[in-house]
Amino acid sequence: xxxxRHGYKFIxxxxxxxxxxxxxxxxxxxAELVNEILEEYGKSERYTKExxxxxxxxxxxxxxxxxxxxxxGIQMSKGGLLYYGxxxxxxxxxxxxxxxxxxxxxxxxxxxxxxxxEYTLAVVSSSALGRIKAQIETIGAAKxxxxxxxxxxxxxxxxxxxxxxxxxxxxxxEKLGAKPHECLAIEDSVSxxxxxxRANIPTIGYVGAYKTEGPKEVMKETLKRAxxxxxxxxxxxxxxxFRLMLDLDCP
Length: 251
Description:
The protein is of the alpha/beta class. It has 2 domains: 10-21 and 101-247, HAD superfamily/HAD-like (Rossmann fold); 23-99. It has helices at residues 23-40, 49-56, 61-71, 78-99, 106-116, 129-138, 167-176, 190-198, 213-226, 238-247; strands at 10-13, 120-125, 150-152, 183-187, 203-206, 230-232. Strand 4 (183-187), helix 8 and strand 5 (203-206) form a beta-alpha-beta unit. Helix 1 (23-40) packs across helix 2 (49-56) and helix 4 runs parallel beside helix 6 (129-138). The longest helix has 22 residues, at 78-99. Mean pLDDT is 94; it is low at 1-5.
């Protein structure tokens, strides 16, 4: 692993499609629930996993659902939003525990960083806390993250604010006593990258969750435009990517 020269002390990992291959696996479940809601309210449009990902990649369900309701003219109470948020979380956790996998190479990088003992490792996600914990437990990564280093935009703050709002990153830094230049974030989505960058945290984009070259290249350019310092294609490229981050003046 590369030697630290720029003072990084805290490494913040997004969860979904950054360290866990969850977005595509669980979005089928989410699409089914969204379609059930649309049917219940007499709406004809239906979503697939692909259409949800194209429009809401990086969104938590609790951020996604109000936007879908607004788009389709659905008046849903706060109680209804909370109910469906809990239903989706339970379904997603069940799905991931049964079939979830880590992003290729992510676990090895996390383990190596943990073993060095030079960095505080944290998960900073828009997902609900129960979902985050279930996912990192399933892939065998929970032992590398202290309880106080798991941050959920849904549950860790008094008022939930999902990415791209930077609040969850600011909250994580406050709780850990970290300054932005001491932190490094790894994110796979535009909303996630924007959240970290708006918190003034140097950010690596990650596109390894995409299975084919075409989408990887498209997202690589998209994350660059979003402000990522570097975009990493696969976790096996971590050493070179981290070394490059040490040499860059970013942000």
